[in-house]
Amino acid sequence: MASNEKGNPPATLEPQVVKKLLDLLSSDDNFRDLFQRDADAALVQAGYVAPAENALKSTMTESTAPSAGSCLQMMAGASLASKEAIMQERAKLEQTLNAIQHFTCPPELQSD
Fold this sequence. Notes:
Elements: H1 15-25, H2 29-37, H3 39-45, H4 53-59, H5 68-72, H6 83-88, H7 90-98
């Protein structure tokens, strides 16, 4: 499990955000392009709301708190898996994305 400099794990994504994210990644070309360029903006479009500042401060400082989008941002040169592959791996992706993020985009979201 990855953690930040203070040893705190990053926040999880809400299940409804995960569902919306995967719905859009498996159906919407414009959203897929946005996700590849800016995962933070794509998550906001999918309904992600960053934890409240006071809740965030109770577990980590703002400067060490990873954003959900930075955890999912694809590495330069990586490509997003096809819509069909995302649909095929949906159950596994939901499980992975509902767990603590590991500071990397899940391999099931990337093409081979």
